[in-house]
Amino acid sequence: RCVIGVLALQGAFIEHVHHLEQCIENDAGKCYGPGLEIVTVKESAQLWRCDALVIPGGESTSMSLIAQRNGLFDDLYKFVRDSSKAIWGTCAGLIFLAEELSTQGKLVKTLQLFKGRVRRNAFGRQAQSFTQECDFSSFIPNCSDFPTTFIRAPVIEKILDPEKVEVLYKLDGVGTGHASMDGLIVAARQGQNVLVTSFHPELAADIRFHDWFIKEFVLKL
Ligand code: GLN
């Protein structure tokens, strides 16, 4: 049995649960095999049952403070360092995983796993949120038109360990209509087991990103 946990302290966790469940339903045992289970994680006992953990979007300061106050922070710190676990952080989840934050976001206590420097709210305020069709076909087969949502999203400003981190996707300034966004890193993987994205694939009516996470990360553990 393989258990995928979704951290459920705060933020858009239920959307991840629904997408992952939809993946299992659609797959109907064809590729994934039997016994994949999705659970929400609010406490340590639930966390340690998991083989993979998705850290959702939301608000990274709150997420970190709640984890510190309810005693989960230290377990999360250990869990994400176990290379036999698959980890995926989206948006606030990416911020929470970052080794370094740019000056503006320094007050968040992070898990310091992802070897990158992350800039919070890189696209401006809530009103500057946007959806962008992205061509992910260089890493997800046949996925050239994925609708990604950026909500007060962070970007990966700098890769701190280029030997360990592979950039998966950079925004294309022409595609977004904003030349200033050209080349901003919004998706990366670190080794076999860690995935980070600035955007929210769980807010699209499209499960291809989650299906790829299950196949490429969770089932390859
Ligand atoms: N701006 C938020 C933060 O700094 C992240 C936003 C999101 O997850 N949609 O935590």
UniProtKB/TrEMBL annotation:
Molecular function terms from GO: glutaminase activity; lyase activity
Reaction equation(s) it catalyzes: L-glutamine + H2O = L-glutamate + NH4(+)
Record protein name field: glutaminase
GO cellular component, one term: cytosol
Record GO biological process: pyridoxal phosphate biosynthetic process; pyridoxine metabolic process
Leading EC class: hydrolase
Transmembrane parts of this sequence: none
EC number: 3.5.1.2
Keyword Phosphoprotein included in the entry's annotation: no
Alphabetical UniProt keywords: Glutamine amidotransferase, Hydrolase, Lyase
Similarity-based family: Belongs to the glutaminase PdxT/SNO family.
